[in-house]
């Protein structure tokens, strides 16, 4: 199967599962339902849930049905973070994925609540899924715990706080690394480690997938910065955000590309223990590495999938 076919197939399964879950949203207040659906569909690359399924189903051959709720939960957490990130109090972006940001359509209050609802819904569907597998309680709870750590104050939320508070004043590389690791890489890493945990991977496999995810997530953020930096329009569109300390600002475009590539190369070595079984994960890393040559800046159209 070609890479595009395999990626699209996972993506369709994730989209279908998200639609089923949101089918129950008819009980939600109308504005809240519309605001949630606006950001969840058609969505972006679905990278985190695809990574989850690539490990759970692709690498360990587990039953897709058991993993899909976790995959959808990761996309919901990611979507909530983007809705909140675009708010005036955060990055103050008017556009996301080539369309108006959620708060520009539904207002700040609805956008905040849509993000809150998505975060709650993520845990609701993971818990419901967990209750369906009573014999497997421990791995489900462990996977959920990893996700809660990575998306919370020790991970994505903490990284966002550091980004807001520190980036303008403490222009050290350590600060930048901390922000990239927590804000972006943590959720990507946990997409792999939560899947491996649910699949009852051994210690060595867990470590390798965690390292692959952390390195890839870090490189992914550098590439995002490269795309922002390269786009002239972005300087107008992203406003003050573009004045922030980023990899291209510190290391230049070539230096940043080289660093991202070195991280991807190191990440790929981690997959050696899985041999051919990890082909699709390797292809995802290659696909992400190639993104620095594409895109329009501010986060849209970075994918050809
Ligand atoms: C508000 C708690 C909170 C956290 C926000 C993730 C994040 C933290 C902010 C997003 C800012 C941003 C654009 C970072 C660059 C890396 C990144 C996460 C890009 C968007 O991820 P993609 O490319 O998005 O996977 P799509 O559109 O494909 O879903």
Short structural summary:
This protein is mainly alpha-helical and 305 residues long. Helices cover 72% and strands 1% of the residues. The two termini are 14 Å apart.
Can you put this structure into words, describing what you see?
Helix 6 runs antiparallel to helix 7, helix 9 packs across helix 10 and helix 12 packs antiparallel against helix 13. Strands 1-2 form a two-stranded antiparallel ribbon. The protein contains 13 helices and 2 strands, in the order H-H-H-H-E-E-H-H-H-H-H-H-H-H-H. Geranylgeranyl diphosphate (GRG) binds next to helix 4, helix 8, helix 9 and helix 10.
Mean pLDDT: 90
Percent helix: over 70%
Tell me the overall shape: globular
Strand order of the largest sheet: 1-2
Q: Report, as a whole number of angstroms, the end-to-end distance.
A: 14 Å
Q: How many E-type strands?
A: 2
Given helix and strand content, the structural type is mainly alpha
Q: Any idea what the radius of gyration is?
A: 18 Å
Q: Count of helices?
A: 13
Detail the poorly predicted runs: 232-240, 295-304
Beta-strand content: under 5%
Elements, N to C (H/E): HHHHEEHHHHHHHHH
Describe the largest sheet.
2 strands, antiparallel
Small-molecule binders: geranylgeranyl diphosphate
């Amino acid at each position: 199967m070609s890479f595009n076919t395999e990626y699209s197939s996972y993506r369709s399964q994730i989209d279908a599962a998200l639609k089923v879950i949101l089918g129950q949203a008819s009980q939600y207040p109308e504005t809240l339902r519309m605001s949630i659906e606006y950001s969840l569909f058609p969505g972006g690359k679905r990278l985190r849930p695809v990574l989850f399924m690539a490990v759970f189903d692709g690498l360990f051959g587990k039953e897709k049905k058991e993993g899909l709720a976790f995959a959808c939960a990761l996309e919901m957490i990611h979507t909530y973070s983007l809705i909140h990130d675009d708010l005036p109090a955060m990055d103050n972006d008017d556009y996301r994925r080539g369309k108006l940001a959620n708060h520009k359509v539904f207002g700040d209050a609805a956008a905040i609540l849509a993000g809150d609802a998505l975060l709650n819904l993520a845990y609701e569907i993971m818990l419901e899924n967990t209750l369906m597998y009573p014999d497997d309680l421990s791995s489900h709870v462990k996977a959920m715990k990893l996700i809660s750590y990575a998306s919370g104050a020790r991970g994505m939320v903490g990284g966002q706080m550091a980004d807001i508070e520190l980036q303008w004043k403490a222009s050290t590389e350590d600060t930048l690394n901390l922000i990239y690791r927590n804000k972006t890489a943590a959720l990507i890493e946990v997409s792999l480690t939560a899947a491996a945990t649910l699949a009852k991977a051994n210690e060595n496999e867990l470590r390798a997938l965690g390292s692959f995810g952390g390195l890839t997530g870090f490189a992914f953020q550098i590439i995002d910065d490269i795309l922002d930096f390269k786009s002239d329009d972005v300087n107008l569109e992203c406003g003050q955000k573009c004045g922030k300390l980023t990899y291209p600002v510190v290391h230049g475009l070539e230096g940043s590309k080289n660093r991202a590539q070195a991280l991807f190369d190191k990440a790929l070595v981690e997959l050696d223990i899985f041999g051919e079984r990890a082909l699709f994960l390797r292809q995802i890393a290659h696909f992400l590495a190639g993104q620095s040559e594409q895109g329009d800046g501010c986060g849209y159209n970075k994918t050809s999938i």
